[in-house]
Write a structure and sequence with these properties.
By secondary structure, the protein is an all-alpha fold. Helix content is 80%, strand content 0%.
Length: 226
Amino acid sequence: MQFYLAVALLTPWLARTAGWRIWVCCILVAWTWRATMFYASGPVDPYRLFMRVIQLPGTLDEFGAGIFLAKILQARPGPKPAAGWGWAIASVVLGTACMAVYWPHAYYWNQAGMVIFWRTSLGMFFLCVVAAAVHLPQVAQKWPLRPVHYVGVVSYGIYLWHMFAIRLCLGLHGITPQQALALTLGLTLLLASASWHFFEKPILEFGRRLSASKAHPIAAAAPRDA
């Protein structure tokens, strides 16, 4: 909600500013916010620090990556297979490098460098993945990537429900971290799928039918070629 409000207020600036400038500004603001939260918070538990650094300023580098990609696609619309394969290769390279940095520092929350800077590299990796999927839509929708494509379809539900699943697992005793991860992922996907099929999709289809019914009289009244 904070992001939507910020975009509405900044629309004139976003429209006239180059994508790379927007992204650089977003990165600098995010780094500043996360550094401030890390050093000003003192010794706090990971959950409290997590809640502080993921407030809107702290995630602007990832949102900025999406804006940067949107600007590129706006200037050069349409799938481009050659560019798509380039983005796919870049995603493999960046993803490998990103996780190579993460795993030796997986405790994460007691390390300033990880808290402040690492998420920017993760945003770059996701940018490449999304760009590859946009330019290679036929590949992204075929097996074995079809389950991944479905995850993208229900992704808004994942965003809505993942914290509920995490909090539920944190309240369970006697389960291993691996079991907690599996339960969190499974419950989140189940709730996201239910939300999509029984709530989001029917509302979207109703909206399309309503729009079509309103547009039909206009189309019928429009003059036809002889």
